[in-house]
Amino acid sequence: MNPKLSTHFNHRLPSSIREAQIIFSKRVDKNHIQVVNLAIGNVSLPMHPAMQKRMNELGTNSFSNGVVKYTPSVGTQEARDAFLNIIGSEGVDVEQLHSLITDGGSQAMELMMLGVCGPSSDNPLMLLDPAYTNYIEFGKRLSIQIITSNRHISDDGMFDPLNFDYIDSMIQKQKPRGLLVIPNDNPTGQFLTQKELNMIGKICVKNNIWMISDEAYRQLYYVDDGSSSIWRITEDNAPGITGRRISIESASKVWNACGLRIGGLVTDNDNFHTKAVSEYTANLCANAIGQHIFGSLAHESHEDLNEWYQSQRNYYRQLMIPLRENLLNAIPGLIVTMPEAAIYFVIDFRNICNNLFDARDFVKYCASKGKVNIDGKDYTLLLAPMNGFYSDPSYGKTQMRVAMVEPEELIKKTPTILAQLYLDYLDK
After folding, report:
1. Using CA atoms, how far apart are residues 265 and 283, in angstroms rounded to an integer?
2. How does DSSP assign 54-109, residue by residue?
3. Cβ-count burial of 418 within 10 angstroms (0-12 exposed, 13-18 middle, 19+ buried)?
């Protein structure tokens, strides 16, 4: 007889952004299928040149003696300064900001949830639904209740405007300890303008709660409003906002360094920062080599950083806009959200499928047996079912998230592959 697993482990399923990849890995014919993996934001672009230079010099410079020691738990000064330099390129005075380096943005999320809500179901965290799935999963891990204000996708792919009065009333009724937003949104690709962030800041001040902003995709926007950030909310915009702000930072997306696993937790609250560092001492420190590579950005000028942002925006814009149009043409009646920001949009089959259609089942079909032949080569498509991004998994049954992470030539084949996989799935 084997010892028992915990209740948490017994109920644990793979994340919706990883499940398709796990299923595909078990296919007998996987070596004969070209997989187009748009399920997870695993960026395939090269890092910033300064980071590449650091990486290429690792064996002849800082780590040439083969010694890789722990860094301080708070992170190296250079890596911390890199995040502050990046925030400073927004035109923000970073003098009063504190930066802690973590093992990827995901660790910063979990640390923030501990600091804001603690491992307690009595102190909820509020999100905008649909929300990044890891916040929902960390809520389960830490026994933190997640409450949400829903966002509705219209048939034209646009989102209804945020209802600030409703958000305010929810906060007053359910008493969350903090409200988290993702201005350049994962999973929806929606963009929250600076004016909207200012309004949310006022609501947080009014209700005396933390305002948290996940800014992993900051500067990846495709609208005319310019970038937005929690750090651009001023005392004039939201009197009392100082000292209640926290941002989640990452080297993964804008800097194309997912595998470095370098994240950051930035705040303008001295006590929160001190206690966060104390909590993180149990982790010892983040990846030392990753910090060294990422730390190169501490020395880049704001002009250089802004040129980099523009190059990344140009790349994704020329992929996402045509892909959306081609999907709409390939599958009449499909809803595709307008790509305003980040590297994602949502597709919704609700207007063309029957009531039995389940996006998760469709994703499993594509990963386990689906294939489409194009010019003598078999392809399949991996996507993320959206029910994993809702606090209530009964929502999003007809929706999937699409990530712009594969090489351009594969992304261009997506409409053809998806249309045929859908028809094959209906006929199975």
Report:
1. 14
2. HHHTGGGTTTTTS--PPPPTT--HHHHHHHHHHHHTTT---TT-EEEEEEHHHHHH
3. buried
Taking the chain, what is the end-to-end CA distance rounded to the nearest angstrom?
41
Instruction: Reply yes or no: is the peptide bond before residue 130 cis, omega within 30 of 0.
Output: yes
Task: Measure the CA–CA gap between 65 and 194, rounded to whole angstroms.
Answer: 47
Q: How far apart are CA 268 and CA 246, in angstroms?
A: 7
Interatomic CA distance for residues 102 and 294, integer angstroms: 12
Q: For the chain, what are the domain ranges? A: 7-46+305-427, 50-301
Residue 15: pLDDT band with limits 50, 70, 90: confident
Nearest Cα neighbor of 380 from 412, 418, 335 is: 418
Class in CATH terms, 7-46+305-427:
alpha beta
Secondary structure in 3-state letters for 278-315: HHHHHHCCCCHHHHHHHHHHHHCCHHHHHHHHHHHHHH
Provide the 3-class DSSP secondary structure of residue 213: strand
Nearest to 216 by CA among 258, 262, 248: 248
Report the Cα 144 to chain-centroid distance in Å.
20
Tokens of 18: 């990883």
Which CATH architecture group holds 50-301? 3-Layer(aba) Sandwich (3.40)
> Please, are residues 104 and 263 in contact by the beta-carbon 8 Å criterion?
yes
Task: Measure Cα distances from 103 to 78, 109, 140, 206, 248 in Å.
Answer: 16, 10, 20, 33, 12
Nearest CA among 204, 205, 195, 212 for reference residue 249: 212
Show Cβ contacts of residue 242 under 8 Å, excluding neighbours closer than 6 positions.
Answer: 96, 235, 268
Residue 207 amino acid letter? N
Residue in the block written with tokens 């900001």: 97
372 phi, psi to nearest 5 deg: -130, 130
Tokens of 214: 């996940």
**Residue 362 in 3-state DSSP?**
helix
- Calpha distance 191→226 (Å, rounded): 10
pTM score of the predicted model:
0.94
Q: How confident is the model at residue 13 (pLDDT cuts 50, 70, 90)?
A: confident
Q: Is the pLDDT confidence value at 16 over 90?
A: no
User: Can you tell me whether residue 316 is helix, strand or coil?
Assistant: helix
